[in-house]
Amino acid sequence: MAKVVIFGIGQIAEIAHYYLTNDSEHEVVAFTVDQNFLSEPYFHDLPVIAYENITKKYPPSECRMFLPISYKKVNRLRTDKFLDAKLKGYEFISYISSKAECNNAIVGENCFIFENNVIQPFTNIGDNCILWSGNHIGHHSTIKNNCFLASHVVISGGVTIGEYSFIGVNATIRDNVKIGRMNVIGAGSLILSDTDNNAVYSPKETEKSKVPSDRLRGI
User: Fold this and answer.
1) How confident is the model at residue 35 (pLDDT cuts 50, 70, 90)?
2) DSSP category for residue 92
3) Calpha distance 82→151 (Å, rounded)
4) Cβ neighbour number for residue 100 with a 10 Å cutoff
């Protein structure tokens, strides 16, 4: 069991606190945010400490860190804080839901893996990755450092996801495809071939029907 400091007091930090408290052996002892965002002294009855002072209050010799930060700036914000906390001497926990299937996979530091993820054998997930609920990660796939997968993503076998990539809800990636570095794969995308670095895929939204709902027959 580790004593854990969670970075943030927003929705994702609140979710992280819930999962760690109810589905892990770890003890959350505090939250931390940058001094500029320190708006309240307590969150879920635990102290909120300015990140600039965190080593004095909760030193790395006594606590580990967990940074459940979103995909803002194509995951750069989370990565910068992860590297900074590492320089301060912190080690990190990773959370893998007890309701996820993680079969003979390698998972790095500061990963947040939600329920109903199916991670097949011989998969490698790098450091600082977030996998929201309900994804399929095929065998022999590699998700490199600092990635974010939204819900119900299907990654087939032998796929490589480049660093800093974001994969949106219900995206599908064919087997043996290589996704470039810092890609943004929008919700509902279908990727059948390798992608370049910094590529963006944004499928069109479903068109609105010209018939209003009060004139539909059979509903």
Assistant:
1) very high
2) B
3) 23
4) 20
| Predicted confidence band of residue 219 (pLDDT cuts 50, 70, 90) | confident
Summarised one tens digit per residue, pLDDT across range 77-98 is 999 999 999 999 999 999 999 9
CA 57 and chain centroid, separation: 27
CATH number of 95-199: 2.160.10.10
Q: Flag whether the pTM goes above 0.70.
A: yes
Nearest CA-CA partner of 135 in 176, 181, 97, 82: 97
Cα–Cα distance measured from residue 141 to residue 56, given in angstroms and rounded to the nearest whole number: 40
Kindly report, residue by residue over 71-81, the tens digit of the pLDDT. 999 999 999 99
Pick the CATH number of 3-87 from 3.40.50.2300, 3.40.50.20, 3.40.50.300, 2.60.40.10: 3.40.50.20
Find the farthest-apart pair of alpha carbons in the chain and give their distance in angstroms, rounded. 67
Single out the residue of 32, 2, 41, 34 nearest to residue 20, CA to CA: 2
Q: Which residues of 109-130 are buried (b: 16+ CB within 10 A; e: fewer)?
A: bbbbbbeebebbeebebbbbbb
- The rounded Cα 94 to chain-centroid distance in angstroms is 11
